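so im writing up the methods section and need the TniQ protein record in one place, dumping it here so i stop losing it
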Amino acid sequence: MGIIRPLGRSLTPLPDESAAGFLMRLSCRLETSPAEIAIATGLVTPARARNPLPQVLQPPDGVIELFARRIRSTEEEAARMFLTAFAEKYPPASNLPRSYRTSVGSRHNRWLFLHASRFCPVCLAGDGSPVQRAFGGVWKRTWRLPPVFACLVHHRYLAHECPVCHVSALSTNPGTVHGSLPRWRDSGIHPARCRSTNEEGGVRRRSTPEMGCPARFDQVSPPSIVPSVQVEQLQDRLLSLLSPDGPDFVDILGRITPVAHYFNDLRVLCHLFRTSWPACLEFVHDRQLREAAAACELAAEDSPRSATLRSFHDSPLPAAIPCAALLAGADSLLRSIQPRELGTYVKELLSHDPRRPGKADWSRDFLETRPACSDGLLRALAPVLQTYARSRLPRAVKKPIRKVSYRVDNIPQFLQCDWYENYFGGMDGIAVSAIRRTAALRLCQIAVGGSLHNAASMLDFPLTAEGKHRAADGAKRVHQWARQRPDPGEFEEAVHSLADYLDQCDSLIDYRRRRNALRNWCIPENVWREIASRIPEPENAGHRPELGERKRQTASIVVWARLSEGEHVFAPHPIRNRQDPKNRNAWRLSDYAFWARIQQGTTRQVDDQLLALLDQYIAHLAPIIDLEGEVPKESSPWS
Ligand SMILES: [Zn+2]
Ligand SMILES: [Zn+2]
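--- predicted struct ---
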């Protein structure tokens, strides 16, 4: 590197000034072109001066120090002139493209005005000081961020285009593949002047200072409305969240959320709002803003291709007023309600699309790109988007939508009784077993994604025809039933509320561990003798119940079902298996009959005595299995 020579007559960077704005002001002062200044300050090498946009938006590696010395400022001041400073808080400003040809305008950076800028005419006019009167005011860096739509100093919405030629301010040269500021190599153009080279009749001539649009951005008249106090508060909050020195977290949807996730949430909701414009305006509480936005004609994308339409709707609106309306609506939803309500609104907004919610353009875009949104938004969207049951799923929906902290191991095959009572107890018109089985499978899908079939195998449903049938049939019945309910989303929402509860539990039972320990298990003979001996002789010298092998099998099934919270029909039955094939069915029916008596509350005295002893045995086994992962052979509560 050669000797660093500071420029003789530099300028002090203004607060929030962009590098592009600084180059324009300094070139005006030194009566040269922004390109010459960029080369002289080391920001751009002569070889790259034809394609400098990436360098003007983010400093090339290692040039900040050089740039700072040449413009006689501190490194910190110089670093603040580039968009990269926002990367941590505002995801679209991270991973800025290094080369214009390859990736400028990629989806990731789309929510950044890389090729134009909004502006405040009064800021551009300067503060009246001699230097600003001569060379103009500040072109702010934050004006390239779509969430910045108003100037809080001058209480006005930002402008975005020339009032005369209607070309976007600082629009990158159209019709070329080179990304450069407009009139990058032209000298003598005031920073506040429109840099469009569009001549009357569309003819472009050789560049001279006189050619091009003569309009001045610092003389643009104000829009018809001024931002209300409420809108300014929103802008103030957004600016503070964007600031690298601002807060790291924000409270939305009832949860403390990293700021970067909040901005992704805003973008995702603005996209949804665009697809359902103007229905979304009902969420904009500021009447003046709502009416002004409703009067704006949003350009319609005429391409019928889904992918084009999706990127069109995901792009930020350059005009400040409708963009402010979208952001205000999205922000008010995120701040004022709980995920459950937001899910309902999302469903309503998706109803403009004739396809079902999971298939709508916006949903497909979300599922394919999976933006890093807040936990609250993911919680709101999961019941809307993750309603799949088929075994063959498109790739995009195989991943879970929300993040949960409970594990699949914590889910029993058949929903725990108290969970059922608390979350599904009031639901009538459907078999309890279908709800308990399907809810367990859905909890598994919420945690790991994938199909119902996959969930059944993760919960160790037997891979027999009966096991598969029960899993699929229960879910089918629940879905059919749910569609007929006054609120078809009631069941899904209840499963997600239960998932919320499980997420807050400090300790959950590891049901998989229990299922593994009890695989092919039955009550050991010595323990069974102990149990049988404790059942008293019937009163009045009545008939003593049979307490042989068949009862041991039945009792083993009860213990298995209680410990693993599985369905008795899926319990192992090793003793029954050892019987003569023609007896097995009778044994099975006997097991079922015993179970039916428990379910219906028609147990006999001897059943109750047996069940009471089994309860003691279960209470004895549970902590041992949870700790050691296996059932002790000899141990019983009575030994
Ligand atoms: Zn201003
Ligand atoms: Zn113009």
